[in-house]
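Methods — Computational structure assignment.
A single polypeptide chain was analysed. Its primary sequence is given first, followed by the predicted tertiary structure written as structure tokens.
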Amino acid sequence: MESGFGIAEAHRESVGSPGDGGQRRERASIAAQACETCRNRKSKCDERRPKCSLCHRLNVECKYREPQPTKKDKTMVNISDNITRVLEGQARIESKIDVLGRHVVPGSPVFRVPRSPTSASTVGQSSTLHLSSPFSMSGSIKPDVMSAFSPESATYSYMDNPMTQNILTAPHKILLWPAIAEYMTDRGVAGLDLQSIIRSGTPWILRHDLVKHPDVLSIRTPLIRVSTPQGVGFPDLNMEVMNKYTEAYFSNFNRLFPILDRKEFQEDFLARIVRNGFGDDLVSILVLLVLSLGVVADEGANGVPVRSNSGIRGGTSKEPPGLAIFNEARKRMGFVSTQCSVENIQCHLLSSEQVDWNSSKGVAVKRVYWMCHLIENWFHLDLDLPQTGLCNLQGEVPLPEDGDSNISDDMHYNMLHFTALEYLRKVIARIHSDISRGKSTNSRNEPSDETGSPPTHIINELKTQLDDWRHALPVALQWHDADRFAYPNHSGSRGVPGAQQVLFRFNQGTAESWRGNILDIITAQLRSRYYYAEFMVYRAFVFKALHHPNSMTHEDKEMAARCLRSALLWPIAMWPCKSRKRLVPVLFAWTQNFIGVLLVLRMLTVDKCLHDIMGHYLDQGEVEQTVMLLLDWMRDVKQIDGIAEWSWTFLERLYDDVVGKF
């Protein structure tokens, strides 16, 4: 009994002794429950809820701090945190499974494609505008519709919802412009669920391609294989054929994305395959991928069009060229895919070493990193897909050409082009972010609530940055607006004509003597991206012209004219690029940009303010040619692109006076 009471007494002393640290901790815990008023007045709090006596007497708000966990509570806190992490992990897994299900079952309600526009009877009832000529002035926007929108509510109201912010691509936001939406309704293009587009964002865009291509691409005639002592061989891929497709790949795709070193590939990788045949290793996969892309490069430029006058060459709309070889590579990827395990991470950490950026391996790492960086960022800008954090390393990895003294002249030109694209990508990203930020702060700097004026201080700064980029281009890449269709200032060893000759044309010219070179697409990509950026910088003035024409100043009209002029005759849509669409990088992005341009150009014939701007500042012939080129592009690409197919359902109605001329 004594020993028992002794333990109890010791415990009471440990928590109640005035000089003991345990008592101070207990008092601190009790003091933590005091309300803010008692704490500030250093008064004893009776801890009554909802108001203590002092706060009730003073008639003030009574606030209590959250009690801080004591040492005794640490275990429960850790358990709670672990449970929370498990639940969050489970939620992430469930969301990934849900997304996977959408890809596997594109016919599900979540990925259901809206029905096509209304019938012809509806068109007859709702069409109130008649356009006698594709570029004659007729019709106007209803004033009652115009007065119902302010710049904030009309342009950016959907940005208020955090769930929809930054999930809709810039071209499709034009669909939400009140003037364009009202005009499309008048033309009988009903059935476009704009609210669904706003809510879904990027998944709404992707689901159309899922329905267009619901199954994994299969082939009717796979490659015939034969066994070899050390692997397998494909009789159709003899030495002559492999050399042909290797040449096609390095002359085309590797110039757009200079990932591989040609000498290393031919002398090491390809030679190993010739000696031993194909296995399940990385070298075999790499060679098969290069050969499959070589088929695309060769057939995409020289193959039979999938239909008459199509710029999509080689294979069919359902089976692209090179698919049999590509599938052989895909079959082997599972054997070398990275496992997600702690042990695998430990192995990589233990075997890691510092990269010598000037070595052949370092140069290869630089190329791979910057190609991935550029592609990921274009996807982020064009589809708003989330970034992986790859860009956080850009300060650690030098540019591909830095320190590489053994680079060839052709590769040097490719790297100049790549570096220029990378810096232009940064400017375009800044354009998107700064204009979006200007929307939220515009009310403090510009009277947009009254006149719809864009944030001109931001726009002028962005234009300055864009001009600085252009002026800093190497001489080999520079061009003047008057000569934007000419060859670049690059004279290589492949018989490329001089810079004074025309490279890009509205009509098909003679066959190029330098067939196999991809200089046209490289040049068109750089110049068209620049004009796209300029179009984005000034696009807000076109919106103002449509919705606040009475507030347009002379300077505003000049800015709107710059936007419209920047949208005309992009080289990427002209010959010879349009005849080799399978070789155009991120084809879907250009297609989406063309949708926005076509919607804006259509309004030149409808809106009086824009029609006057066209008459004073634009070349009407270039406007007509641009419309013809872009409509022809959309009609061609809709065979393989779900968004182009969807867009064609309303574009052919909006341009029914032009489509009939094809």
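Note: The chain has a mean pLDDT of 74.
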